Amino acid sequence: MAETQTGTGINKILVANRGEIAVRIIRAARDLGIPTVAVYSDVDRAALHVRYADEAVHIGGPRPAESYLRGDTLIDVARKTGADAVHPGYGFLAENADFAGAVMEAGLVWIGPSPRAIATMGDKQAARTAVMRHGVPLVPGTEAGLPDSELLQAARRIGFPVLIKAVAGGGGMGMRPVHEPSHFESALHTARREAESAFGNGDVYVEKLLLGARHIEFQVLADAHGNTVHLGERECSIQRRNQKLLEEAPSVFVDAGLREKMGNMAIAAAQSVNYTNAGTIECLVDRDKNYYFLEMNTRLQVEHPVTELVTGVDIAKEQIRIARGRRMSPTESVLQPKGWAIECRINAEDPYANFMPSTGQISTMILPNGPGVRVDSGVYSGAEITPYYDSLIAKLITWGDTRSEAMLRMRRALSEYRIMGLKHNIPFHINLLNSISFIAGRFDTNFVEQRFNMRTYEQDPTPDELETAAIAATLYAHRKRQLASQVVSPAKRDASNWKWMGRFERMHR
């Protein structure tokens, strides 16, 4: 398997993906003056990425195994179209070390990290071993490959609750929390079965389950000239069944000191495998701000736009620059983000029916617009959402000088967004943005599943949250009385109210 390449020139890029990420890569390449080749399955013939690319080639049936997972077919298409580089996006074959190696052995430029780095970080136990040598803190856990009886003994030593995790894969598959020993055996069998089915590898390990923890990740970039930097953190704690729903940058929980320490840790983790290109170090951070390495994603992340908006760095373009063998543009790590960005994943699923996936034709779609609003999407009015791929319709991202401004813009953008023809999760995001806990920045990875309700926003607010709400109500009522005593036009009065509420949210975020 090839391990190194000298990508000194890229003249045409094959985009080995679909949907919004394929569109994103095509746009980045076009900004660099590089033509692109799209690939599509039977059901993606009229997809947006097919329309935007300079060329498009049909590669097979609707199921991923018949099309987007056919590495041999993708390499053959690259050769026939004259593409000399392959960008995998995320998902599908993006973190497949064998495919990366095959691309390089075919004489093509792989726009991503080395196959060895992918393989090491793709195996959770190998990743833990690699980063531990560089002083990266780990959640207490076991090795992989232990028999069931030893795993139970280890779980008792670690102390319940614990988390059973698949060695391979990600996205929440093969993961089961266990809160007491009597439930361990059944959870272990379920996790093994799910991991075997999803990844072809039923190996699991056990680690301590951190209650009340936040999921915070750091974006890293590294080039072939010895430069490695981080671009700050992303808050990814709003998730359901280990699937992210909303992300923001920076994190309301991370201060400058913690950012610097975690950023240095992220760089050390990347350097432990001689990493190049874009990658993400994912961490768990407990209530006392102790942080632990979770895993590394060796690809472009779904949530990369929030980092782009607070740093001004085009990460997709940097990937291509690095693959060309050039020095990346950022010269130092980002210790002070500029403003605040929030991303809502707009999915075809019904939040009122346990997030049941929805399929069908989008009869009408009206996108929000205006200052500080960005929409990354791969669909349009008349497009079909099929059951063959993930339910992501679009990513809605807003930016503001402060978190309050970014939230207000997101509320406005969500209210403008119109999707008709199928169920979607915009109502969930609207309710979330009105949640007291979210506004106050008081949430963790269990917030959506344990304390959020679509019909009541939240259940059982904490005393701190009740106090925040009471203060808000008292101050707001006082402000209204003040305004009522002034002779002010309705338009000016409304503007003043919004301005004051923005200041209040900044004080109590």
Descriptive overview:
- This protein is of the alpha+beta class and 509 residues long.
- Helix content is 37%, strand content 23%.
- The protein has an 8-stranded antiparallel beta sheet with strand order 13-12-9-10-11-14-21-19, with helices on both faces. The protein has a 5-stranded parallel beta sheet with strand order 3-2-1-4-5.
- Strand 2, helix 2 and strand 3 form a beta-alpha-beta unit.
- Helix 12 crosses helix 17 (490-508).
- The longest helix has 22 residues, at 463-484.
- It is globular.
- The chain starts with 12 loop residues before the first strand and ends with a helix.
- Mean pLDDT is 90; it is low at 488-501 and 503-509.
| Continuous helix count | 17
Low-confidence stretches: 488-501, 503-509
Structural class: alpha+beta
Find the count of extended strands (DSSP E, 2+ residues).
Answer: 24
Relative strand content: 15-25%
Distance between the termini: 50 Å
Strand order of the largest sheet: 13-12-9-10-11-14-21-19
Give the fraction of residues assigned to helices: 25-40%
Sum up the overall morphology in one term: globular
Radius of gyration: 23 Å
Largest pleated sheet: 8 strands, antiparallel
Q: Overall pLDDT, averaged?
A: 90
